[in-house]
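Structure tokens please, single chain.
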Amino acid sequence: MALSEINSTEQEELEDELFLHQTIITDKGQSLLRIDKFLMDRLANASRNRVQNAIDGETILVNDKPTKANYRVRPLDKITIFLPNPPRNDEILPEDIALDIVYEDAQLLLVNKPAGMVVHPAYGNWTGTLVNALVHHFRFLPTTKNGAIRPGLVHRIDKDTSGLLVIAKSEEAMTKLASQFFYHSIERTYYALIWGEPKELKGTISTYLNRSLSDRRVTVNYDSPEKGKIAITHYEVIEKFGFASLIKCNLKTGRTHQIRAHMKHLGHPIFSDSMYGGDKILKSATIGKFKNFIENCFQIIPRQALHAKTLGFVHPQTKEMVQFNTDLPLDFATVLEKFRKFSLT
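Here you go.
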């Protein structure tokens, strides 16, 4: 039975199992697009299989009626999404999680985030995040201007990327730091281990980046701003190992997965990056000594070898340029040292 056909008594009983999560009204200029692809792009952690299962279960309605996965979304369609569990509220629970604080004053703090820690609570990661730790350690952190409950956050890095994050402790710091990120005046340097050796030891990658419609990866194109957001990465090779390189990347922009997508596009994915192909042995010598060596390195660093190493910005109160630096984490440093010692001969 469709949700639209349930009477009021049955609806009350059903509300113990299904809850209204979201209603989307499409734009007047919405192009015709399959609803499963439309929702995958609009909803966090929405795989095609999950969306299609929800459609088959008639928990996704279009204009108050069940739909099919091949339905093409039209302008001003009303899309209603019901799920078995109630939507999360905006409350973020404090958790006593240790923080590696690099620097702190009355306006801000610098945190060295470990790999594996999610920055902000979201679907599938409601606890154990950096924000849960922040609200435990600091009771009164500002939120963003639009009221989102993201205490102190002005930027973020991926779950499995380690390194520096700046946290605002006042509304003044929040506004001034956010402005620097918006105008791309923040100085950010990442270190990465990549497969192979780029032909140019120093260069700039400038493309448009956009979310893939088929998965959560980011795709690269050169066509137009309509197909993504401009992304600019300056890179430089620091050390060469034959089969791999250590590089540093300075971000002009800070898009989702920017370095990971750009290095994949360059043909040199980040070592152990499963999303962008870096967890495969990208060399002809895939047997024997080299194969065993790389598989051991994958075990040491089972995540993308990417670290946000330095962060520089104008301090919101002193108005002086400040810069902070962190050492490479143990997993990254260990693999780097093994690369230095390994010989293919």
